[in-house]
Amino acid sequence: MKIIYLKSREKKPAVFLDRDGVINKDIPGKYIKSLSDIKLYKTALEGLKKISSCDRFHLIIITNQSAVGRGYITERISRKINDKIVKTLEKEKIKINAVYYCPHSPVDNCDCRKPKPGLIKEALKDYKIDLKKSFLIGDKKTDMELALKTGIKGVFVLTGQAKNQIKKHRKIKADYVLKNLKNADKIICR
Ligand SMILES: [Mg+2]
Ligand SMILES: [Zn+2]
């Protein structure tokens, strides 16, 4: 599923952004169920603003939203939450091109739930993306697996679920590890 905000015919790399735990706070075991659950990381706003202003990337959110498939929230609410996040980012001069989301639950065995590449494939239909020069920023092992599998550089950010993920999986392969997004532009826009 997708929400397109800004179309573009330009060929350029993308910065694929996981949403929960990267842009907004993510508490283990809790789902983002309403607009009041959205708490953005200041550091993410700072970093994304610089990445957006360097103007060399499509900015695309790719997010698993199993809260829909599990019946915790409706698709409509899910879209509203995405809209709110994108509009808030826009106010900070961060231009998001689109949000691609998987609304399924793990038992649906769909093709779009990360680490499966369905969301990236969808984005490739709508935008001309130079994958080799693209980045995928996430706080979970599955995000880094997806990056590896699609030939995108993986940026593991130590916010959100990252600490639990390291405890759980011990080793997570990534091209870059960042404490937060504050200075992500230094590796992305250089
Ligand atoms: Mg996440
Ligand atoms: Zn899916």
Give your account of this protein's structure.
By secondary structure, the protein is of the alpha/beta class. The protein has a single domain (2-188), classed as HAD superfamily/HAD-like (Rossmann fold, 3-Layer(aba) Sandwich), CATH 3.40.50. The chain has helices at residues 42-54, 66-69, 75-91, 118-126, 141-150, 162-169, 185-188, and strands spanning 2-4, 11-12, 14-17, 58-64, 98-102, 128-129, 135-138, 153-157, 176-178. The strands form 2 sheets. A 7-stranded mixed β-sheet has the order 1-5-4-3-7-8-9, with helices on one face. Strands 2-6 form a two-stranded parallel sheet. The radius of gyration is 15 Å and the shape is globular. The relative contact order is 0.22. Bound molecules: magnesium ion and zinc ion (ZN).
